[in-house]
Give the backbone structure.
Amino acid sequence: MNGQYVRNIDRQLIGEEDTFFWLSKGDLKAETESEIVAAQDQALQTKYYATKMLNTETENKCRLCQQFDDTIDHIISACPILAKEQYIKRNDRVCAQLHFNICKEMGYNWTKNSGMHMCQNQ
C-alpha cells in the first residue's frame, strides 16, 4: 500500500502537473500535511490497513456498509451509506465555498440568508 499514490500518478490515474502544488505553498501545519500524504498513500489506520499491512486478524470490511473493504478511497468516495447524506453535505460545502470565492473575486457582497447563500452588487 505504501507508495500507492505515486504509482497511480505513474499510471496516469492522477494529474501529475498540479498534484503536489498544495505542498509548495507551505501554509499547512506539518501534522496536517503528513495526514494528507498518508491518506493519499492509503496509509491511515483503517481496518483494511490493519489487516493487510499490520497483519492483524481483524475483519477488513467497512464499519458502516459491511460490504466493501475499509480503504481510504472507499470511505472518502464509495461507501453507499455515506453516499446517502455525508457526500452530499460535503459537496454542498465545497460548492458554497466556491460560490463565496467567486463572489469575493467579482466584488459582490456574500451573505448567508435563511440557509441560502446569496451574492449582491456592492
